[in-house]
Amino acid sequence: MNWTKLTQAAIPAALQAAKGTNFRRFAGTCVIAALLATGITAAQVITVDTRTGAVSNTSKAPAANVDRRYQQIKPTHVALPNTELDAKTRLELIRVLQSEQGFAMRPFPRGHKGLTLVANGELQPAGEEYLAMIIAQGTSAKPGERLVLSDVKIDHNHMVFLLNGGPEGKHRFLRHVEMGGGGGATSPVIRDAGQEPTGARLTLTFEKGVPGLTGQEVKALLSPLISFDVKTPIEAFTDTLPDKLKEAVLNHQVLVGMSTEMLLYAKGQPETKSHEMEGNMPFDEWVYGKPPKDVEFVRINGNRVIRLEIAKMGKTPEVLTKDEVEGMMRTDGTPLTQAAAPHKTAIDLGDVERNPDTQAPALPPSLSGPGEKMPNANERGTMKPVQFPKQKPDTPQPGATPDGEPEAQPPADTQAPSADGSQPATTTPPQQPASQPN
Fold first, then answer.
1. CB 115 within 8 A of CB 202
2. Is the pLDDT of residue 173 over 90?
């Protein structure tokens, strides 16, 4: 749908309808505001066809491709009982679940809102909103880390689980109360270091009230987010990864694109670490193995493996730089960038960063008109080899070598100007008198 044409056609009609009563004026104003807001908020993607020169501007942006750890979960299929939750079942359910431990299958954000899971339904939020919550609030538990159900609260149609102490600090008011005797010395009622709470909140909602569930049924409903199975730390972490990446970690194999956490689970602590610079990019070099065994040099920038060099005895070192993990960690399994069509060119809106080591600089601005060719137009913006000036031969300066050979005298037939300045006077060396015969 072309929002520009729709807006241009709808605005005059709305203004014509608004010429009536005050209500019509108000309605016309609302229609105009809604159309303008819709046209502005629509995302724009510009595509240029290099064969025909056609420019297409669409308001439909491609779907966001976020990390698979923040994508929507697969709903569970747990048979819910038809009986209501009575007082006895409520107390038994709290006794079974409270202080229970499990492993996080997804990142849990901090904050009072937390995550909301619908029984046998979807997770809210998911996708970009889930990632935005993690960035804004911080992470309470990463995938594979241990979680403790510190408290369980059951309401009419939902259950609230406070994880790792919850997002709210206990005794918030008593922290500011101190007591003492008659000597004047006081001590706080709550003795703690004043640490901020780092827990999380998880809400499990039901459509028609909380039914008479057992502890195992509640754990099955929470299985997409929390695993209550008995596992080792590496099993708990690898269960959150794709199958191929999980196999690589369990086989102690390093892949370019791994995070440092994946690398530590796969290989453990390195033999040596070093911090180096390549150009303007700092990186860490982790070395695994010692000769005569294979030696792996893992280069890390930030929190990702960007280069892997495998050195084997008697063989040429193998260098790997292609990211193999990024595509597996995306929601649809595709890499970050897709190759554009051969006859189409995508234009990036905004500032474009260039690598000075691999990309030529952009052409400088010009005052020439469209289609006008300036002299040496093809040479603008290109780098040429540096031309050094030719070195002139060294000429002796007068008086430069006082102790060396005598300076050369000017030739004898040089001309000197005459006294009146009209004709140059020719100076000739004096002739020796001829010898007379005896």
1. yes
2. no
